[in-house]
Amino acid sequence: MQISELSDRSGLTVQTIKFYIREGLMPKGSSTTVTRAEYDQRHLERLRLIRALREVGDLPVASIKKIVASMEDDSVGLHELFGTTQYALGPHIVPPNDPHWRAAREDVDMLVRELGWEVGDRAPARALLAQTFVALRRLGFPVTLTDLRPYVTAATSVAEHEINRVALDNPRTLTVHAMLASTVIYEQVLTALHRLAQEDVSARRFAADPS
Amino acid sequence: MQISELSDRSGLTVQTIKFYIREGLMPKGSSTTVTRAEYDQRHLERLRLIRALREVGDLPVASIKKIVASMEDDSVGLHELFGTTQYALGPHIVPPNDPHWRAAREDVDMLVRELGWEVGDRAPARALLAQTFVALRRLGFPVTLTDLRPYVTAATSVAEHEINRVALDNPRTLTVHAMLASTVIYEQVLTALHRLAQEDVSARRFAADPS
DNA sequence: GTTTGTTGGATAGTGCCGGTATTCAATGCC
DNA sequence: GGCATTGAATACCGGCACTATCCAACAAAC
User: Fold this and answer.
1) For A85-113, how does the pLDDT look when each residue is reduced to its tens digit (9 = 90+)?
2) What is the DSSP annotation of chain B?
3) Nearest CA of chain A to the CA of B186: how many Å?
4) Hey, of B166, B199, B209, B211, which one would you mutate to test binding to chain A, going by the most A CBs within 10 A of its CB?
5) Counting CB atoms within 10 angstroms of each CB, which of A31, A155, B131, B160 has the fewest?
6) Is pLDDT of A211 > 60?
7) Is the CB of B13 less than 7 A from some atom of nucleic acid strand D?
8) Which residues of A touch B165 (CB under 8 A)?
9) Which chain A residue shows the shortest CA-CA distance from B192?
């Protein structure tokens, strides 16, 4: 198949595909002549993956590049790819040298320790959580372990389901896709359902009661 | 207090504060003379809120403007403010006229109906969920009700805790802030804990097993 | 009362990001 | 033969969230 067909089937313009190739998100097709190149199913799958990571996961192009580089490296184990993806999801903030931030960060580290979770020291999700603590406290809402418990319970049970879903598949490509889907896309599933559930509960609790 | 002190206490530059005033996110201080204005505690709180919505919630300035406009309108009830916030969170996509999209959207609507959830037809979270379905199916991962059950359970239980947290407070300003914290900031808490839980489970399941 | 600094107001500019558009010559297809 | 497609290179664009600069009017310190 040539690039125009790839464009039709992926739903991306030829320009955009060329752009992704230039940015190193995908190898170029195998040139048949100087001005023709042949693309195959794997290119199509790659584009679908890129599209999912961009449009659903809202990942920057540079992050996707890192993810696919890890994907293609067979020496990278599943858990390391997990790490790469987590890192790509960000946040990409520089921890400010602020006492409130350091305290929040310490709280996060303590929480992880108490839960007995095996999580890298530099996992960006730690910073993300610390950031929420800082913001909540600045707004005058202290964060306690009790507040967090329902979230921890929910997160744990969902994560276990997700890993089981991934573990079932066999060929590396499939497993890797399943893992990325779990981390990036199902995260949005959780977010969307969370918002819908909130609206439902809010409707029952607050609607028709203009407080 | 004048603007420079407001800047110090909020952690935002004077320029940025002026920018937010210009954009209508905050009223200007009460002018004492032509070249002096006085700001008070409410300005500071507003800036902290804006900062939380921008830095933690990653909301665009234009969306924050809509939220604070609803906040300030006492005729807007809590549930309507909830709706405004949900709308601000997006996604702001135009539903493509694609059969796959329509099917996914129909699946979402059916799911919401089956769960008996009271959710507006135009809630953006519906579109977000539909978007994930489309992406998952394009990648070759069908989505079933069974797959979703753990997410629904988790989302529901978390949402109930959140509404209870909001319902306790009394003065409107406090209630409103609590609601925004619940929807926008605690959403990030859930996301962060979800990622941390995933990494933990992944470490136990995949690490030191370079498949 | 002069100097130094701050303020509001206005306008312009910046940096990043994710594409788009354009141009070109070589080539394939009918 | 003539039109469309391709790869490659380069330039350009629009949105966004600031950031910088300038100005005249003041205020405060000395």
Assistant:
1) 999 998 988 888 899 999 999 999 999 99
2) --HHHHHHHHT--HHHHHHHHHTTSSPPPEEEETTEEE--HHHHHHHHHHHIIIIIT---HHHHHHHHHHHH-TTS-HHHHHHHHHHHH----PPP--HHHHHHHHHHHHHHHHHT----TT-HHHHHHHHHHHHHHHTT----HHHHHHHHHHHHHHHHHHHHHHHT--SHHHHHHHHHIIIIIHHHHHHHHHHHHHHHHHHHHHTT---
3) 8
4) B199
5) A31
6) no
7) yes
8) 147
9) A125
Indicate the pLDDT class of residue A208, thresholds 50, 70 and 90: low
Test A117 with B204 for CB contact under 8 angstroms.
no
pLDDT digit string, tens, across residues A48-79: 999 999 999 999 999 999 999 999 999 999 99
Task: Report the gap between the CA of B144 and the closest CA in chain A (Å).
Answer: 13
Compute the average pLDDT of residues A113-142.
Answer: 97
Task: Please say whether the beta carbons of B123 and A196 come within 8 A.
Answer: yes
Examine the pLDDT at A209 and tell me if it is beyond 60.
no
- Cross-chain Cβ contact B195/A123 below 8 Å: yes
Are the C-beta atoms of B163 and A201 separated by less than 8 Å? yes
**Nearest alpha-carbon partner for B130 in B153, B96, B84:** B96
φ, ψ dihedrals at B31, nearest 5°: -65, 125
Question: Are A78 and A171 within 8 A, CB to CB?
Answer: no
Please tell me the predicted confidence (pLDDT) of residue A36.
87
Q: Does B207 or A30 have the greater pLDDT score? A: A30
Asked whether the predicted pLDDT for residue B186 surpasses 50, the reply is: yes
Bases of chain C below 7 A from a protein C-beta are 6-11, 17-22, 25-28
